[in-house]
């Protein structure tokens, strides 16, 4: 059968397949290796071109509207970044990114267990500091830095928690 | 004056080629792991791993090319005989 080499080697019909020579197999491996290298170079370029994120000051909640043991969902720093604010007891509040650091499922707050839980793969995070308590996540939840002005809770930045990973 | 190297016997040549292909496959697996780890770090906001990962990946690619050239030379020697 005449035609492109790939069609001979990866034919739809098994009767038309031909064996791959060692040299061709070697070429395939080299091409794959080149692909891996290019992938790493692409990551390097993205890393160099990456701009440090900017975090606006934004009112995300009023303390009085969140009951003890309750939560409020908000988005910070952009509309595509869901976050969760937890009021544990008294005036003790903490806010985290709602995306699980494993596969980005939304975490929820379990008041009785006092932790943030990812329902997808049972990844649990401490509500005190966002560190991983259990499960497949390797990194802590990014923490939203809050400032309190009277009753208003203002988000002023994010701590990605990389040093704790 | 350099003495021309006698060609490898058929059995030894085949062993050498199989070994070289196996080595390339191992290098490829390491490269895959490296890319996965670098991507995981990048997505986690840690960009400082990208440069060493790219350098090591480039070295592994160069080693794979050297092994491929070795296979190619042995194959050509066999065809010329």
Could you name the key traits of this structure?
heterodimer; A: 165 residues; alpha+beta; four-stranded antiparallel sheet; 20% helix; 30% strand; B: 81 residues; mainly alpha
> Can you tell me the CATH class of the largest domain in chain A?
Mainly Beta
Distance between the termini of chain B: 24 Å
Radius of gyration based on Cα positions of chain A: 25 Å
Order of SSEs of chain A, N→C? HHEEEEEEEEEE
Query: What share of residues of chain A is helical?
Result: 10-25%
Shape of chain B: elongated
Q: How would a textbook summarize the main sheet of chain B?
A: none
Mean pLDDT of chain A: 88
The CA-CA distance between the termini of chain A, in Å, is: 56 Å
Report the portion of residues of chain B in β strands.
under 5%
Q: What count of helical segments of chain B does DSSP give?
A: 2
* Radius of gyration of chain B using CA atoms only: 18 Å
Largest sheet: number of strands, sense, barrel closure of chain A: 6 strands, antiparallel
* Oligomeric composition of the shown chains: heterodimer
Find the CATH superfamily of the largest domain in chain A.
Rieske [2Fe-2S] iron-sulphur domain
How many H/I helical runs of chain A? 2
Could you say what the CATH topology of the largest domain in chain A is called? Rieske Iron-sulfur Protein
| Total number of strands of chain B | 0
Uncertain residue segments of chain B: none
Mean pLDDT across residues of chain B? 86
**Which residues of chain A form runs of ≥5 with pLDDT under 50?**
none
């Amino acid at each position: 059968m005449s035609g492109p080499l790939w069609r001979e080697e990866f034919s739809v019909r098994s009767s038309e397949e031909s064996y791959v020579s060692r040299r061709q197999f070697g070429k395939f491996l080299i091409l794959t290796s080149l692909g891996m290298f290019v992938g790493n170079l692409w990551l390097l370029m993205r890393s160099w071109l990456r701009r440090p994120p900017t975090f606006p000051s934004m009112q995300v909640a009023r303390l009085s509207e969140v009951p003890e043991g309750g939560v409020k969902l908000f988005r910070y720093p952009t509309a595509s970044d869901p976050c969760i604010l937890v009021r544990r007891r008294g005036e003790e509040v903490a806010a985290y990114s709602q995306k699980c650091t494993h596969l980005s499922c939304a975490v929820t707050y379990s008041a009785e267990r006092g932790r943030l839980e990812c329902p997808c793969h049972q990844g649990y995070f401490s509500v005190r500091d966002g560190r991983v308590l259990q499960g497949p996540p390797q990194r802590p939840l990014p923490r939203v830095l809050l400032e309190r002005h009277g009753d208003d809770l203002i988000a002023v930045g994010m701590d990605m928690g990389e040093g704790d990973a | 004056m350099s003495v021309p190297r006698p060609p490898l016997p058929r059995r030894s040549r085949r062993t050498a080629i199989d070994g070289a292909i196996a080595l390339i496959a191992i290098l490829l697996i390491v490269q895959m792991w490296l890319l996965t780890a670098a991507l995981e770090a990048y997505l986690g906001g840690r960009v400082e791993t990208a440069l060493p990962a790219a350098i090591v990946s480039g070295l592994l690619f160069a080693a794979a090319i050297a092994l491929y050239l070795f296979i190619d030379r042995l194959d050509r020697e066999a065809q010329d005989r």
